[in-house]
Specification:
Number of helices: 2
Number of domains: 2
Structural class: mainly alpha
Radius of gyration: 28 Å
Order of helices and strands: HH
Largest sheet: none
Shape: elongated
Number of strands: 0
Low-confidence stretches: none
C-alpha cells in the first residue's frame, strides 16, 4: 500500500470515528418513558421470578434423579 493510499485510508477512518463519536451521546441516552413501560417492567420482573423458580425446581429434580440413578448403580 502506497503512502498516499495509506493516508487516505487513515483519513477515512478518522472521519468515520468522528461521526460515531458525534452520535454516541444520543445512542447512550435513555429512551423516554412511554405509556405501558411500568406494566411491561412489572411483567418482566414476574417473568424473571418465574424463570428463577423454574430453574431451581429443575435443578432440584435433576439432583433427585442423579441420586436415584447413583443408588440404582450401587445395587
Amino acid at each position: 500500500m502506497s503512502d498516499d493510499t495509506l493516508l487516505l485510508a487513515i483519513g477515512r477512518l478518522e472521519r468515520a470515528v468522528h461521526r460515531l463519536e458525534e452520535r454516541l451521546p444520543a445512542a447512550l441516552a435513555p429512551a423516554p418513558a412511554r405509556p405501558g413501560d411500568q406494566a411491561l417492567h412489572e411483567r418482566y420482573e414476574r417473568l424473571e421470578e418465574r424463570h428463577r423458580a423454574l430453574r431451581e425446581r429443575t435443578s432440584s429434580a435433576v439432583e433427585r434423579l442423579t441420586r436415584l440413578l447413583d443408588a440404582a448403580k450401587a445395587d
